Amino acid sequence: MAEAVGIGVSYKCGNVGRLVLRENGVKGVKMKDGSVYKVDTVLLATGAWTSEILSAMEDGLNVKEEERVERQITAAGFHRTAIRMVPEKLQQETLDAIVAKLFLNYVQRTPEYWRMCWDSVMPAQDQLVTKYPYSRLQNLYLAVGGSFQSWKFLPIIGEYVVNVLNGVGNGEEKDRRWAWKVEKPEGWGAHEKVVLRRDLSDLE
Ligand SMILES: Cc1cc2nc3c(=O)[nH]c(=O)nc-3n(C[C@H](O)[C@H](O)[C@H](O)COP(=O)(O)OP(=O)(O)OC[C@H]3O[C@@H](n4cnc5c(N)ncnc54)[C@H](O)[C@@H]3O)c2cc1C
């Protein structure tokens, strides 16, 4: 980021509230603090929170159910518990270097906190690097969809995203795989353990 700022990028940090629309596209981004940025182009790289921004806009535009962003990406949660180790004890256990014994110690402890870690999951676990398809929104793009495997693409994905923004694409296969899907793809992608099995509401 420092390098980008060094060549003239203006970098602002804040919480996006909603997109402000004009006749044929997005004219601004309204922040939760009330400020508005005027835009020529918007690229959402908002991961699992993308539908939080787009759903309200889709409601306003009466976008059909089957054409909405939630048919493309699902916010998926990964559940973690954390147990804080007493450092001396951890040192001792590490010294003991008995993995099985360490594991037993873990399960006898009460987790100190619980957290859900979110990512956006595509039906076939591809990325979604594309223009938003609704014809009224000519300047809205998405770079989302990770299926818990997109962190590793950080060093290279930017070039591909810029190609989409510039309208040159990334070749037939990538453009097809990373496109907004009209039909639900068959099967799941590379990692079966990421296949979504339950809705959060099933657990409440
Ligand atoms: C527990 C866990 C383990 C993982 N392990 C791996 C791994 O080993 N290898 C791997 O490759 N990938 C891994 N991943 C997946 C990887 O982290 C994601 O696929 C990747 O981060 C997705 O990138 P993204 O840019 O699409 O979304 P994110 O990284 O989620 O970024 C979205 C950003 O948008 C911001 N945002 C959202 N809404 C707003 C708003 N309204 N206003 C302003 N900002 C907003 C968020 O704060 C966030 O910074 C893991 C994920 C999790 C949760």
TrEMBL record:
Keywords from the UniProt entry: FAD, Flavoprotein, Oxidoreductase
InterPro entries to which the protein is assigned, alphabetical:
FAD/NAD-bd_sf, MTOX
Q: Which cofactor does it need?
A: FAD
**SUPFAM superfamilies, alphabetically?**
FAD/NAD(P)-binding domain
User: MF terms per GO, please?
Assistant: flavin adenine dinucleotide binding; saccharopine oxidase activity; sarcosine oxidase activity
Read off the PANTHER family from this record: FAD DEPENDENT OXIDOREDUCTASE DOMAIN-CONTAINING PROTEIN, PEROXISOMAL SARCOSINE OXIDASE
Name recorded for this polypeptide: FAD dependent oxidoreductase
Natural source organism: Mytilinidion resinicola
